[in-house]
Design a protein that fits this description.
The protein has two helices and five strands; from the N terminus they run E-E-E-H-E-H-E. With 73 residues, the chain is an alpha/beta fold. The N and C termini lie far apart (23 Å).
């Protein structure tokens, strides 16, 4: 599962644009995949609190193996 977060606040889940509220339901659907892992790719200029919130959403969806990748602009 790949979650990308752009500086303008656009969030994508596996390439599809989602709202922050819809992210958890999308992740819950993905947790049934054989590998329960997620990668969060985020712009380095985003507030840390947003990334922590997304990490919490992953955890609430049952995905605990999460890595964070920083996109430099």
């Amino acid at each position: 599962v790949v979650v990308e977060v752009g500086l303008e606040g656009r969030i994508t889940l596996n390439g599809k644009t989602v709202t922050l509220d819809a992210l958890e339901s999308g992740l819950k659907a993905a947790r049934d995949a054989p590998e329960r892992t997620a990668v969060i790719r985020a712009d380095e200029r985003l507030p840390y609190g947003l990334i922590v919130r997304i990490l919490g959403i992953c955890r609430a969806a049952g995905i605990y193996d999460v890595s964070v990748s920083v996109k430099k602009q």
